[in-house]
Amino acid sequence: MKIVLLEGVHQACVDRLIQAGYQPELRKNALSEEELLNIIGGVHILGVRSKTHVTKRVLDAAESLLAVGCFCIGTDQVDLEQAALRGVPVFNAPFSNTRSVAELAMAEMVMLARRASHKSQLLHRGVWEKSAEGCIEVRNKTVGLVGYGHIGPQVGLLAESFGMKVYYYDIVGKLPLGNATPVSSLEELLKVSDFVSLHVPDTAETRQLISARELSMMKKGAFLLNLSRGRVVDLDAVKAAVENGSLGGVAVDVFPEEPASNDDPFECPLMGLNNVILTPHIGGSTIEAQRNIGLEVATTLLKFIEVGSTTGSVNFPQVELPMVRDSHRILNIHRNVPGVLSSINTIIAQMGGNIRAQYLNTLGEVGYLIIDVDQQMSQAVRSKIDELSTSIKTRLLF
Ligand code: NAI
Protein backbone atom coordinates (compact mmCIF):
# COMPACT_ATOMS: atom_id res chain seq x y z
CA MET A 1 0.00 0.00 0.00
CA LYS A 2 1.69 3.19 -1.17
CA ILE A 3 0.64 6.14 0.97
CA VAL A 4 1.89 9.59 -0.03
CA LEU A 5 1.30 12.52 2.32
CA LEU A 6 1.91 16.04 0.97
CA GLU A 7 2.09 19.50 2.52
CA GLY A 8 3.72 18.43 5.80
CA VAL A 9 0.71 16.79 7.43
CA HIS A 10 0.90 16.54 11.21
CA GLN A 11 3.30 14.01 12.75
CA ALA A 12 0.40 12.50 14.73
CA CYS A 13 -0.99 11.16 11.45
CA VAL A 14 2.37 9.76 10.37
CA ASP A 15 2.80 8.03 13.75
CA ARG A 16 -0.69 6.52 13.58
CA LEU A 17 -0.05 5.08 10.11
CA ILE A 18 3.38 3.70 11.08
CA GLN A 19 1.83 2.13 14.20
CA ALA A 20 -0.66 0.39 11.91
CA GLY A 21 2.22 -1.06 9.87
CA TYR A 22 2.37 1.35 6.91
CA GLN A 23 5.34 3.38 5.67
CA PRO A 24 3.93 6.68 4.40
CA GLU A 25 6.05 8.69 1.97
CA LEU A 26 6.24 12.29 3.18
CA ARG A 27 6.64 15.53 1.25
CA LYS A 28 6.81 18.95 2.85
CA ASN A 29 5.30 21.00 0.06
CA ALA A 30 2.22 21.05 -2.11
CA LEU A 31 2.59 19.62 -5.64
CA SER A 32 1.52 21.30 -8.86
CA GLU A 33 -0.77 19.39 -11.22
CA GLU A 34 2.23 18.38 -13.39
CA GLU A 35 4.24 17.20 -10.38
CA LEU A 36 1.27 15.24 -9.08
CA LEU A 37 0.73 13.64 -12.50
CA ASN A 38 4.33 12.36 -12.36
CA ILE A 39 3.84 10.45 -9.11
CA ILE A 40 0.14 9.61 -8.84
CA GLY A 41 0.20 6.44 -10.98
CA GLY A 42 1.32 4.07 -8.21
CA VAL A 43 -0.26 5.85 -5.26
CA HIS A 44 -3.00 4.07 -3.29
CA ILE A 45 -3.69 6.69 -0.65
CA LEU A 46 -3.04 10.40 -1.16
CA GLY A 47 -2.99 12.91 1.72
CA VAL A 48 -3.23 16.63 0.92
CA ARG A 49 -3.99 19.86 2.73
CA SER A 50 -5.56 22.87 1.02
CA LYS A 51 -2.89 23.75 -1.57
CA THR A 52 -2.63 20.61 -3.69
CA HIS A 53 -5.36 20.38 -6.32
CA VAL A 54 -6.58 16.91 -7.17
CA THR A 55 -8.09 17.62 -10.58
CA LYS A 56 -9.89 15.45 -13.13
CA ARG A 57 -6.58 15.10 -15.03
CA VAL A 58 -4.85 13.85 -11.90
CA LEU A 59 -7.70 11.43 -11.15
CA ASP A 60 -7.58 10.12 -14.74
CA ALA A 61 -3.94 9.18 -14.18
CA ALA A 62 -4.52 7.80 -10.66
CA GLU A 63 -4.93 4.15 -11.65
CA SER A 64 -4.27 2.70 -8.22
CA LEU A 65 -5.84 5.42 -6.09
CA LEU A 66 -8.18 4.09 -3.39
CA ALA A 67 -8.86 7.20 -1.30
CA VAL A 68 -7.88 10.83 -0.71
CA GLY A 69 -7.47 12.30 2.78
CA CYS A 70 -7.84 16.08 3.08
CA PHE A 71 -6.00 17.10 6.25
CA CYS A 72 -8.15 20.19 6.67
CA ILE A 73 -11.80 21.18 6.83
CA GLY A 74 -12.45 22.23 3.22
CA THR A 75 -12.46 19.83 0.28
CA ASP A 76 -12.78 22.28 -2.65
CA GLN A 77 -9.25 21.40 -3.77
CA VAL A 78 -10.43 17.94 -4.86
CA ASP A 79 -12.77 17.31 -7.79
CA LEU A 80 -15.19 15.39 -5.57
CA GLU A 81 -17.63 14.33 -8.27
CA GLN A 82 -14.92 12.95 -10.56
CA ALA A 83 -13.29 11.18 -7.61
CA ALA A 84 -16.60 9.48 -6.72
CA LEU A 85 -17.16 8.39 -10.34
CA ARG A 86 -13.77 6.66 -10.22
CA GLY A 87 -14.61 4.96 -6.93
CA VAL A 88 -12.36 7.18 -4.81
CA PRO A 89 -13.84 8.38 -1.50
CA VAL A 90 -12.52 11.66 -0.09
CA PHE A 91 -12.25 12.17 3.66
CA ASN A 92 -11.69 15.30 5.75
CA ALA A 93 -11.81 16.27 9.42
CA PRO A 94 -14.67 18.72 9.86
CA PHE A 95 -14.96 18.62 13.62
CA SER A 96 -11.34 18.51 14.81
CA ASN A 97 -11.31 22.20 15.68
CA THR A 98 -14.67 22.43 17.44
CA ARG A 99 -13.21 23.14 20.87
CA SER A 100 -10.75 25.70 19.51
CA VAL A 101 -13.63 27.77 18.09
CA ALA A 102 -15.62 27.43 21.31
CA GLU A 103 -12.69 28.64 23.43
CA LEU A 104 -12.19 31.73 21.28
CA ALA A 105 -15.92 32.54 21.41
CA MET A 106 -15.89 32.27 25.19
CA ALA A 107 -12.79 34.42 25.53
CA GLU A 108 -14.28 37.04 23.23
CA MET A 109 -17.47 37.26 25.28
CA VAL A 110 -15.37 38.22 28.30
CA MET A 111 -13.21 40.62 26.26
CA LEU A 112 -16.29 42.36 24.83
CA ALA A 113 -18.02 42.56 28.21
CA ARG A 114 -14.93 44.25 29.70
CA ARG A 115 -14.22 46.38 26.61
CA ALA A 116 -10.73 44.92 27.02
CA SER A 117 -9.70 44.83 23.38
CA HIS A 118 -10.67 48.47 22.94
CA LYS A 119 -8.72 49.45 26.06
CA SER A 120 -5.76 47.42 24.87
CA GLN A 121 -5.74 49.27 21.55
CA LEU A 122 -5.85 52.59 23.42
CA LEU A 123 -2.99 51.56 25.67
CA HIS A 124 -0.87 50.58 22.66
CA ARG A 125 -1.32 54.19 21.57
CA GLY A 126 -0.29 55.47 25.02
CA VAL A 127 -3.83 56.21 26.31
CA TRP A 128 -4.49 55.04 29.90
CA GLU A 129 -8.26 54.56 30.25
CA LYS A 130 -8.80 52.98 33.66
CA SER A 131 -12.56 52.98 34.13
CA ALA A 132 -15.36 50.56 35.02
CA GLU A 133 -17.88 52.37 32.86
CA GLY A 134 -19.78 50.02 30.56
CA CYS A 135 -17.77 47.02 31.81
CA ILE A 136 -19.72 44.00 33.06
CA GLU A 137 -19.17 40.43 34.21
CA VAL A 138 -20.53 37.64 32.04
CA ARG A 139 -21.82 35.81 35.12
CA ASN A 140 -25.64 35.65 35.22
CA LYS A 141 -25.85 37.02 31.67
CA THR A 142 -27.60 35.12 28.90
CA VAL A 143 -25.90 33.76 25.82
CA GLY A 144 -28.07 32.81 22.86
CA LEU A 145 -26.51 30.26 20.51
CA VAL A 146 -27.76 30.26 16.94
CA GLY A 147 -26.99 26.76 15.66
CA TYR A 148 -26.51 23.92 18.14
CA GLY A 149 -24.49 21.40 16.11
CA HIS A 150 -20.90 20.64 17.13
CA ILE A 151 -19.59 24.05 18.19
CA GLY A 152 -22.74 25.55 19.72
CA PRO A 153 -23.02 23.05 22.63
CA GLN A 154 -19.29 23.41 23.42
CA VAL A 155 -19.69 27.17 23.73
CA GLY A 156 -22.74 26.52 25.90
CA LEU A 157 -20.80 24.27 28.28
CA LEU A 158 -17.94 26.77 28.63
CA ALA A 159 -20.43 29.61 29.16
CA GLU A 160 -22.18 27.67 31.92
CA SER A 161 -18.85 27.23 33.69
CA PHE A 162 -18.63 31.02 33.69
CA GLY A 163 -22.07 31.20 35.35
CA MET A 164 -23.97 32.21 32.22
CA LYS A 165 -27.47 31.13 31.25
CA VAL A 166 -27.54 29.35 27.90
CA TYR A 167 -30.36 29.42 25.35
CA TYR A 168 -30.16 28.04 21.84
CA TYR A 169 -32.07 27.99 18.60
CA ASP A 170 -31.56 25.33 15.92
CA ILE A 171 -33.75 24.39 12.97
CA VAL A 172 -33.32 20.74 13.98
CA GLY A 173 -34.41 19.46 17.40
CA LYS A 174 -31.25 19.01 19.50
CA LEU A 175 -30.73 17.45 22.91
CA PRO A 176 -29.52 20.18 25.31
CA LEU A 177 -26.14 19.74 26.97
CA GLY A 178 -25.80 20.89 30.58
CA ASN A 179 -28.66 23.22 31.50
CA ALA A 180 -29.09 24.83 28.09
CA THR A 181 -32.65 25.77 27.11
CA PRO A 182 -33.93 25.46 23.54
CA VAL A 183 -36.19 28.20 22.18
CA SER A 184 -38.53 27.86 19.26
CA SER A 185 -37.55 30.85 17.12
CA LEU A 186 -34.60 33.05 16.28
CA GLU A 187 -36.65 36.11 17.30
CA GLU A 188 -37.23 34.68 20.78
CA LEU A 189 -33.52 33.97 21.15
CA LEU A 190 -32.51 37.47 20.04
CA LYS A 191 -34.90 39.07 22.53
CA VAL A 192 -33.59 37.22 25.63
CA SER A 193 -29.84 37.23 24.90
CA ASP A 194 -27.14 39.54 26.24
CA PHE A 195 -24.71 37.79 23.88
CA VAL A 196 -25.69 36.25 20.55
CA SER A 197 -23.15 33.78 19.16
CA LEU A 198 -23.58 32.37 15.65
CA HIS A 199 -22.68 28.74 14.90
CA VAL A 200 -24.59 27.92 11.72
CA PRO A 201 -23.31 26.69 8.33
CA ASP A 202 -23.28 28.85 5.20
CA THR A 203 -26.50 27.89 3.42
CA ALA A 204 -29.12 29.71 1.35
CA GLU A 205 -31.20 30.05 4.56
CA THR A 206 -28.39 31.41 6.74
CA ARG A 207 -27.14 34.07 4.33
CA GLN A 208 -27.71 37.48 5.97
CA LEU A 209 -29.49 35.65 8.79
CA ILE A 210 -28.50 38.60 10.98
CA SER A 211 -29.31 41.89 9.28
CA ALA A 212 -30.95 45.19 10.36
CA ARG A 213 -34.29 43.54 11.23
CA GLU A 214 -32.71 40.91 13.51
CA LEU A 215 -30.31 43.43 15.08
CA SER A 216 -33.27 45.62 16.00
CA MET A 217 -34.77 42.71 17.98
CA MET A 218 -31.69 42.33 20.18
CA LYS A 219 -31.48 43.90 23.65
CA LYS A 220 -29.99 47.39 23.67
CA GLY A 221 -26.26 47.12 24.28
CA ALA A 222 -26.15 43.37 23.59
CA PHE A 223 -23.09 41.76 21.98
CA LEU A 224 -22.83 39.81 18.73
CA LEU A 225 -20.24 37.16 17.87
CA ASN A 226 -19.75 35.58 14.47
CA LEU A 227 -17.21 32.76 14.28
CA SER A 228 -19.27 30.78 11.77
CA ARG A 229 -19.30 31.98 8.15
CA GLY A 230 -18.92 35.51 6.79
CA ARG A 231 -22.10 35.69 4.75
CA VAL A 232 -24.33 34.93 7.75
CA VAL A 233 -24.14 38.56 8.90
CA ASP A 234 -24.82 41.86 7.12
CA LEU A 235 -21.74 43.82 8.19
CA ASP A 236 -23.09 47.19 7.05
CA ALA A 237 -26.12 46.73 9.31
CA VAL A 238 -23.80 45.71 12.16
CA LYS A 239 -21.69 48.81 11.58
CA ALA A 240 -24.79 51.02 11.87
CA ALA A 241 -25.86 49.22 15.06
CA VAL A 242 -22.43 49.70 16.67
CA GLU A 243 -22.31 53.36 15.67
CA ASN A 244 -25.76 54.13 17.07
CA GLY A 245 -25.04 52.19 20.27
CA SER A 246 -27.72 49.53 19.89
CA LEU A 247 -24.96 46.89 19.85
CA GLY A 248 -22.51 47.05 22.77
CA GLY A 249 -19.74 45.26 20.91
CA VAL A 250 -19.01 42.72 18.22
CA ALA A 251 -16.49 39.95 17.60
CA VAL A 252 -16.03 38.78 14.01
CA ASP A 253 -13.69 36.01 12.88
CA VAL A 254 -15.15 35.30 9.43
CA PHE A 255 -15.91 37.69 6.58
CA PRO A 256 -17.88 37.64 3.33
CA GLU A 257 -14.65 38.45 1.47
CA GLU A 258 -11.45 37.05 2.98
CA PRO A 259 -7.93 37.64 1.62
CA ALA A 260 -6.68 34.62 -0.33
CA SER A 261 -3.30 34.77 1.44
CA ASN A 262 -1.51 36.61 4.25
CA ASP A 263 0.07 38.88 1.61
CA ASP A 264 -3.29 40.20 0.38
CA PRO A 265 -4.95 43.27 1.91
CA PHE A 266 -8.04 43.14 4.14
CA GLU A 267 -11.07 45.45 4.06
CA CYS A 268 -14.25 45.38 6.13
CA PRO A 269 -16.86 47.95 7.21
CA LEU A 270 -16.17 47.33 10.91
CA MET A 271 -12.53 48.45 10.84
CA GLY A 272 -11.72 51.15 13.37
CA LEU A 273 -14.99 50.86 15.38
CA ASN A 274 -14.92 50.83 19.19
CA ASN A 275 -15.30 47.52 21.00
CA VAL A 276 -15.15 45.48 17.84
CA ILE A 277 -12.78 42.51 17.87
CA LEU A 278 -11.67 41.40 14.41
CA THR A 279 -9.69 38.17 13.99
CA PRO A 280 -8.43 36.67 10.70
CA HIS A 281 -10.51 33.45 10.58
CA ILE A 282 -8.45 31.82 13.33
CA GLY A 283 -11.31 30.30 15.34
CA GLY A 284 -10.18 26.78 14.52
CA SER A 285 -6.48 27.50 14.08
CA THR A 286 -4.65 25.85 16.98
CA ILE A 287 -1.87 23.32 17.32
CA GLU A 288 -4.32 20.96 19.05
CA ALA A 289 -6.76 21.21 16.14
CA GLN A 290 -3.95 20.44 13.65
CA ARG A 291 -3.04 17.36 15.66
CA ASN A 292 -6.69 16.28 15.90
CA ILE A 293 -7.04 16.69 12.13
CA GLY A 294 -3.99 14.45 11.61
CA LEU A 295 -5.37 11.76 13.91
CA GLU A 296 -8.95 11.98 12.65
CA VAL A 297 -8.07 11.66 8.96
CA ALA A 298 -5.48 8.92 9.61
CA THR A 299 -8.11 6.96 11.55
CA THR A 300 -10.78 7.28 8.85
CA LEU A 301 -8.25 6.33 6.14
CA LEU A 302 -7.16 3.26 8.13
CA LYS A 303 -10.80 2.19 8.63
CA PHE A 304 -11.33 2.51 4.89
CA ILE A 305 -8.16 0.59 4.02
CA GLU A 306 -8.73 -2.17 6.55
CA VAL A 307 -12.51 -2.72 6.69
CA GLY A 308 -13.89 -0.56 3.87
CA SER A 309 -15.81 1.94 6.07
CA THR A 310 -16.68 5.19 4.33
CA THR A 311 -18.32 6.95 7.28
CA GLY A 312 -17.39 10.64 7.16
CA SER A 313 -16.56 10.66 3.45
CA VAL A 314 -17.71 13.85 1.74
CA ASN A 315 -18.43 12.41 -1.72
CA PHE A 316 -19.30 8.78 -1.24
CA PRO A 317 -22.12 6.53 0.02
CA GLN A 318 -21.61 6.03 3.76
CA VAL A 319 -21.16 2.36 4.62
CA GLU A 320 -20.01 0.88 7.93
CA LEU A 321 -20.30 -2.81 8.77
CA PRO A 322 -18.53 -4.77 11.52
CA MET A 323 -16.43 -7.51 9.92
CA VAL A 324 -17.85 -11.03 10.38
CA ARG A 325 -15.29 -13.45 11.87
CA ASP A 326 -13.67 -16.09 9.66
CA SER A 327 -14.96 -14.53 6.47
CA HIS A 328 -13.44 -12.48 3.67
CA ARG A 329 -14.79 -9.06 2.70
CA ILE A 330 -15.51 -7.93 -0.83
CA LEU A 331 -15.87 -4.19 -1.44
CA ASN A 332 -17.63 -3.35 -4.68
CA ILE A 333 -17.99 0.20 -5.98
CA HIS A 334 -20.39 0.31 -8.92
CA ARG A 335 -22.50 2.52 -11.12
CA ASN A 336 -25.79 3.18 -9.35
CA VAL A 337 -28.15 1.50 -11.80
CA PRO A 338 -31.02 -0.93 -11.11
CA GLY A 339 -30.21 -4.63 -10.71
CA VAL A 340 -26.60 -4.52 -9.43
CA LEU A 341 -27.36 -6.13 -6.09
CA SER A 342 -29.40 -8.87 -7.66
CA SER A 343 -26.64 -9.65 -10.24
CA ILE A 344 -24.04 -9.88 -7.48
CA ASN A 345 -26.21 -12.06 -5.27
CA THR A 346 -26.96 -14.33 -8.25
CA ILE A 347 -23.21 -14.76 -8.86
CA ILE A 348 -22.66 -15.78 -5.25
CA ALA A 349 -25.69 -18.11 -5.22
CA GLN A 350 -24.63 -19.79 -8.49
CA MET A 351 -21.19 -20.44 -7.01
CA GLY A 352 -22.86 -22.08 -4.01
CA GLY A 353 -21.59 -19.36 -1.68
CA ASN A 354 -23.01 -18.01 1.54
CA ILE A 355 -23.38 -14.29 2.16
CA ARG A 356 -22.59 -13.77 5.84
CA ALA A 357 -23.28 -10.03 5.93
CA GLN A 358 -24.05 -7.40 3.35
CA TYR A 359 -24.62 -3.64 3.24
CA LEU A 360 -25.36 -1.46 0.22
CA ASN A 361 -25.67 2.31 0.08
CA THR A 362 -25.83 4.70 -2.87
CA LEU A 363 -25.12 8.37 -3.48
CA GLY A 364 -25.76 10.02 -6.82
CA GLU A 365 -24.25 7.91 -9.58
CA VAL A 366 -22.25 5.64 -7.28
CA GLY A 367 -23.21 2.58 -5.26
CA TYR A 368 -21.03 0.95 -2.61
CA LEU A 369 -21.55 -2.62 -1.48
CA ILE A 370 -19.79 -4.54 1.29
CA ILE A 371 -20.23 -8.33 1.38
CA ASP A 372 -18.68 -10.77 3.82
CA VAL A 373 -18.41 -14.24 2.20
CA ASP A 374 -16.91 -17.68 2.89
CA GLN A 375 -13.11 -17.58 2.77
CA GLN A 376 -12.61 -20.48 0.35
CA MET A 377 -14.51 -18.81 -2.47
CA SER A 378 -13.77 -15.10 -1.94
CA GLN A 379 -11.13 -14.76 -4.71
CA ALA A 380 -13.37 -16.37 -7.32
CA VAL A 381 -16.41 -14.32 -6.27
CA ARG A 382 -14.37 -11.14 -6.37
CA SER A 383 -13.19 -11.84 -9.94
CA LYS A 384 -16.72 -12.54 -11.15
CA ILE A 385 -18.11 -9.38 -9.54
CA ASP A 386 -15.25 -7.33 -10.98
CA GLU A 387 -16.19 -8.55 -14.48
CA LEU A 388 -19.70 -7.02 -14.23
CA SER A 389 -20.08 -4.05 -16.57
CA THR A 390 -21.49 -2.01 -13.67
CA SER A 391 -18.39 -2.46 -11.48
CA ILE A 392 -16.04 0.52 -11.03
CA LYS A 393 -13.69 -1.01 -8.49
CA THR A 394 -13.68 -4.25 -6.50
CA ARG A 395 -11.38 -4.96 -3.59
CA LEU A 396 -10.91 -8.05 -1.43
CA LEU A 397 -9.96 -7.84 2.24
CA PHE A 398 -8.75 -10.80 4.27
P1 NAI B 1 -22.54 21.81 12.52
O1 NAI B 1 -22.94 21.46 11.17
O2 NAI B 1 -22.13 20.75 13.48
O3 NAI B 1 -23.74 22.63 13.24
C1 NAI B 1 -24.47 23.63 12.61
C2 NAI B 1 -25.86 23.67 13.24
O4 NAI B 1 -26.56 24.78 12.70
C3 NAI B 1 -26.68 22.42 12.94
O5 NAI B 1 -27.18 21.87 14.15
C4 NAI B 1 -27.81 22.94 12.06
O6 NAI B 1 -29.03 22.25 12.25
C5 NAI B 1 -27.92 24.37 12.53
N1 NAI B 1 -28.56 25.27 11.57
C6 NAI B 1 -28.51 25.24 10.21
N2 NAI B 1 -29.23 26.26 9.70
C7 NAI B 1 -29.74 26.93 10.74
C8 NAI B 1 -30.57 28.07 10.85
N3 NAI B 1 -31.04 28.72 9.77
N4 NAI B 1 -30.92 28.50 12.09
C9 NAI B 1 -30.48 27.84 13.20
N5 NAI B 1 -29.69 26.74 13.15
C10 NAI B 1 -29.33 26.30 11.94
O7 NAI B 1 -21.42 22.91 12.38
P2 NAI B 1 -20.29 23.29 13.44
O8 NAI B 1 -19.16 22.35 13.32
O9 NAI B 1 -20.91 23.51 14.76
O10 NAI B 1 -19.81 24.69 12.81
C11 NAI B 1 -20.63 25.84 12.86
C12 NAI B 1 -20.06 26.89 11.94
O11 NAI B 1 -18.74 27.25 12.34
C13 NAI B 1 -19.94 26.45 10.47
O12 NAI B 1 -20.32 27.52 9.64
C14 NAI B 1 -18.47 26.20 10.31
O13 NAI B 1 -18.07 26.37 8.97
C15 NAI B 1 -17.89 27.28 11.21
N6 NAI B 1 -16.50 27.05 11.63
C16 NAI B 1 -15.69 28.14 11.75
C17 NAI B 1 -14.38 27.99 12.14
C18 NAI B 1 -13.50 29.18 12.31
O14 NAI B 1 -12.29 29.05 12.17
N7 NAI B 1 -14.03 30.32 12.64
C19 NAI B 1 -13.80 26.66 12.36
C20 NAI B 1 -14.77 25.58 12.32
C21 NAI B 1 -16.07 25.79 11.94
Structure commentary:
The chain is of the alpha/beta class and 398 residues long. Helices cover 32% and strands 20% of the residues. The chain folds into three domains: 127 residues, Rossmann fold; 181 residues, Rossmann fold; 82 residues, 2-Layer Sandwich (Alpha-Beta Plaits). Helix 7 links the parallel strand 6 and strand 7. Helix 1 runs parallel beside helix 11 and helix 5 packs across helix 7. The radius of gyration is 26 Å and the shape is elongated. It binds 1,4-dihydronicotinamide adenine dinucleotide. 1,4-dihydronicotinamide adenine dinucleotide binds next to helix 5 and helix 7.
What is the helical fraction, as a range of percent? Answer: 25-40%
Q: State the total count of DSSP E strands.
A: 16
What is the count of distinct domains?
Answer: 3
Terminal CA distance reads: 15 Å
Main attributes?
Alpha-Beta Plaits; 398 residues; 13 helices; 20% strand; binds 1,4-dihydronicotinamide adenine dinucleotide; seven-stranded parallel β-sheet; alpha/beta; Rossmann fold; 3 domains; five-stranded parallel β-sheet; elongated
Task: Provide a compact summary of the structure.
This protein is α/β, with parallel strands linked by helices and 398 residues long. It is built from 13 helices and 16 strands.
